[in-house]
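Hi support team,

I'm opening this ticket because the web form for multi-chain structure prediction keeps timing out on my end. I have pasted the exact lines I submitted so you can reproduce it. The total is 913 residues across two entries, so I didn't expect it to be a heavy job. Is there a limit I'm missing, or should I split the entries? Thanks in advance, R.K.
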Amino acid sequence: MTLVFSLAIASLFAAGAYLMLKRDLIRLIAGMIMIGNAANLFIMASALRRGTAAILPHDGDDMADPLTQAMVLTAIVISFATAALALVVVYRVYTSHLSVDLGELSLAEEEQSELDEPRSEDIVETEIEEEVEAMIDEALAEVPT
Amino acid sequence: MNTAILLLIVAIAAPFLALASGAIHPRLVPHVSLVATAAAAVVTIWSFWQPDSTYSTTWISVYDLNFYFTLDGLARLYALLATGIGFLVVAYASRYLPLHLHHQHRPESDQTRFYFFLLLFMAAMVGLVMAQDLILIFLFWDLTAIASFFLIGYDQQEEESRGAAMMALMVTGITAVLVLIGAMLLHREYGTWSLPEIIAHGDLVGMTKWGLLLIAIGALAKSAQVPMHFWLPRAMAAPTPVSAYLHSAAMVAAGVFLIGRFYPLMQQVDWLLDLFLFIGFASMLVGGIIALTRNVLKHILAYSTISQYGYVVFMFGMGGEYGIKGASFYVLAHAIVKSALFLTAGAVSEATGKKNLADIGGLGRKMPWLAAGSGMAASGLVALPLTIGFFKDELFFARATELGQPYILMDVLGASLTFAYIFRFWTHLFLGREITSPAPISRWLVWPVVVLGIITVVGGIWPEPFTSVASSAASISANKVADIHVHYTFDPIPENLMAIATWVCGLTIYWTRKRWWRAATGVAHLGERVGPAHWYYRGLWGLNALSDRVHDIEVRDLRSRVVSILVPAGALVAIAVLVTPNSNSFEIGAFGQHDFALIIMIVAAVVSGFVVMLLRDHLRLAIGLSCVGYSLAGVYAFMGAPNVTLVAIVVETMTSLFLIGMLVLMPSSILRFETQAKVDKRTMPRDAIIATVAGLLVFFVSWGALSRTSLNTEVIDSQTALTEAVHAKNVVTAILADFRGFDTMGEITVIAITSIGVISLLRSGRLR
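Hello R.K., no limit was hit. The queue was backed up. Here is the completed structure from your submission:
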């Protein structure tokens, strides 16, 4: 069974990793959820013993390891919380950029940063313009009226 | 009462008292600081009549670390410098600092910070000189670097002082790490952190020499020795009291103190002594020559400090009885006269508003007390008779005479340079034509100088108290009883002839200055252009550029940021898998009779996972994803975990609803764009390869880990027994609610924070 579990964990992880490499943000979240599933399955598979449910009173059969179950419960809930938050962030990205595509978003970001920081040539140009204007003003002031 | 612990408490309490009084009223701070430093100085002076005292108590027993302090001769000497000169500097600062802040339009409350860090520096110094545990030595050593960073950068609105503070921290902080490594090497060889035990061991074993070299490098950097001297002149950007304190009595003195502390070990390594000789002489020359060419008052004194500590290092390099005694005596004499000269420079600049030697002259008539006080100090530095300085050079020459001609020449050369630049400094300031007429200044800016000047002369007439202080310090460095006796003789002994030669040479250098001026400035200029400072800046810029580039790579978009974290992490895991001995550790595992259903559910989960990967439509993606989740819930059900199954079903339902709700909120055009986007021919195989590699890695890691689970299942039984004890029926819920309640609370907190995040993100409307 160890081999089967490992194969399953690895397949889920690989599928999740593949999805995470997509440009679509929703697929990225799907990949995240999938990797979370793989991790949960790993925790469950690491039980010291498999057996019947850990509920008392218990008859002679072997009881399943309750500790890993408790841990995986926490893990499931936390991965749900992070997935929900990530989904809302994607929605937020959509409302502000009208896109959920990573490629488009990086383009938009670059454009924005160029808008924010004026290029050095522009600065020099405006400075020269200002200087020229000041010189014209001076020359005009010297003209006798 | 144990004097060591008393001094430590007084010194460590001082900065915090200053801070507390600053909270009440800023004006109180100078008074409280003055009282605190006076108390520390009194305790130090009182300790000279007390026997050596030791205090030791366990700190971290696992690592064999102790709070181990000894107030011995060496510690007394440096503690006297730190507290005594600290007291005078605080007295001076009490008048200087308000003027300084006034010039810069800063509030009076800024004073608190100054006194806090100045006193913290004093405390660090006092702790350092008494510490006997290698780790304690390192801690206090680093604390001095941190305090000096804040003091040098005190004028934080000035870019120059910020840069200077950074440079001092970089040079002394990086080399402090070398001290730590050196301490660890010593610990590795001797198995103890206690320095006295290591010294008592006698022989040098194994890597000890290299550890000592690292410690020596740290010490030389702190003492601003060539080629790590460039931070000191720039640190002059600090207010004058800081310069006077750090650069005469505290910061740079800490470096030679460390050499003195480790000297019993270091003197056994011949090449280390040769290194001291070489670096000491280089510092004497470089410092002396550049000091001759400088015009800014504090820069002259800064380069002078480099050259003077070069003497001390040189004396440690020469070794022998006179060398060690001379080094201790030299540090004492130099600290007194150099702090006086620094305070003079500050007072003169305050009175005239000028910092440049060319703009100041002939102040002697208007400021007779200052001229007299600093004159005494200056003649102390150039070793005129009837000052304490005469004896410092006397010991220096005595050792050189023992060693032979080359040493005599080097000594006379170094001392002549000192004579020339100090002669220039003092005569230009106080003699000749008056250039800028001085404004009246507070008496508190003058009397510390006069006191130090008088001490210089008293030491020249009655040297016994000073020699006894230096003797007891030298006894520690030499690790045997050393006794210094000095007196005047009028016979033509070599020492006297060397002293006369020094004065003649010094005056000659000064009067022929027009001939060599250009050559010397050329050397100084060359040093700036290709010297260590240049390499420091290049290194700094290089690092900055590298960090910019990494930053660019990392934050360009989300994917590359994730990659920059995950790829190194994955690589580390891969290395771990490769280097772990794996032979015969992979097990296929036993199949039970009920495992058939389990395998079917696992296959269902994996198949739906692969299907999700290929689906293009978003709604089908959501459904496929929930298929994976529900299949996994089934897997858990067949693993004897009903609790997990129920939670997994609930959570999966919620996730699916959430995802579908999200898709409903977004217009179909956006989603269609993604659905109909062509599969990129270039990235598809790349993504597939990355995913496969990741999957293989996870496969080997998880198979290796799962094959090696513990066989000891006692913990299950103990949890069951505990559950019975708390009258619960379900072991899993008992663990969650009772035994690991804090984890569950953390989990609930995460959910709460996430809910708040989700709600606030959804409610704030469109950004545009």
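A quick check on our side: Chain A touches chain B through 87 residues (CB under 8 Å). Let us know if the file doesn't open in your viewer.
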